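Entry details:
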Amino acid sequence: MKRLVLFVLLVVVAGQAQTAEKIQTGFITGSTLLESCSTPIGDFRSGECLGYVMAIVELHSSLVDSNLLQPMTCLPTGETGVTTGQLVLVAKKYLQEHPEYLHYAAPSLVMNAFTDAFPCK
């Protein structure tokens, strides 16, 4: 339980930012992330989406590697590995298919997407 609390705390702290929504709540919502992930590639907001999704992946990996968290998802590695573009698509698909959750914290929703798409066996 301590590890889960630590993970959530680190995600929230990592999510601190400069938009009004982020300043008020400490994280962006799934709705805001979906907006970013729905912009054309090359647009600044698409880069924001990619960076946000990859930050969640890196944070999860770091906590697992440091034995502070049990794996919540197991991303494919090696030649059958997943690309950053695929990770963004998985997150975007989850957000699109679950509009009832868009008001929740984006980090949790991204992890839910990866847990569903890449469960640990």
In short: The CA atoms of residues 21 and 28 lie 7 Å apart. The radius of gyration is 14 Å.
